[in-house]
Amino acid sequence: MSSQNRTWVGPSAPERLNILRSTKSIAIVGMSNKPSRASYFVATYLLSSSPYDVYFVNPVLDEVLGQKVYPSLADLPVVPDLVEVFRKDADLPGVAREAVDIGAKTVWMQLGSWNEEAARIAEDAGLNAVMDRCVKIEHARFHGGLHLAGFNTGVISSKRQVTA
Questions:
Q1: pLDDT tens profile 117-157
Q2: What is the pTM of this model?
């Protein structure tokens, strides 16, 4: 989908920061057991470098990274504050409906994901919706761990980095 077809406008950076600050638990829908997949990479980061309780959802897996994987959002032992979705765009409205049904506060669709119907489903039910953003990148950016380009430079400075 080209960007000119996008009519939905998501939360601003301060609003996304507030979402992440008020979030205590995250369910990753579409969790993979393959280290090369974004969900695995993000889950590893969230488990090691964030304060969140993290739950995995995938109907075909039993365990990833030493944690139980649940078949659906409804099967989780808690209602997650934030549902992070790693699924193809066509699946997003269904996941948004599930998030609404269980009482989640936010539906967060991963970098590259865009489905305005899913965002409307979430927002119409009073949930926050975020699309085409990565929780890992956003969390690290807000907590001083990332250069704006998305790389950890190890340097915290307001000055532009100059390379020789």
A1: 999 999 999 999 999 998 988 888 877 654 444 444 444 44
A2: 0.84
- Annotated domain spans of the chain: 13-143
Instruction: Summarize pLDDT for 62-117 with one digit per residue, the tens.
Output: 999 999 999 999 999 999 999 999 999 999 999 999 999 999 999 999 988 999 99
Superfamily of domain 13-143: NAD(P)-binding Rossmann-like Domain (3.40.50.720)
Query: What pairs with residue 55 in β-bridges?
Result: 27
DSSP string for residues in 25-75: EEEEET--S-TTSHHHHHHHHHHHH-S-EEEEE-TT-SEETTEEEESSGGG
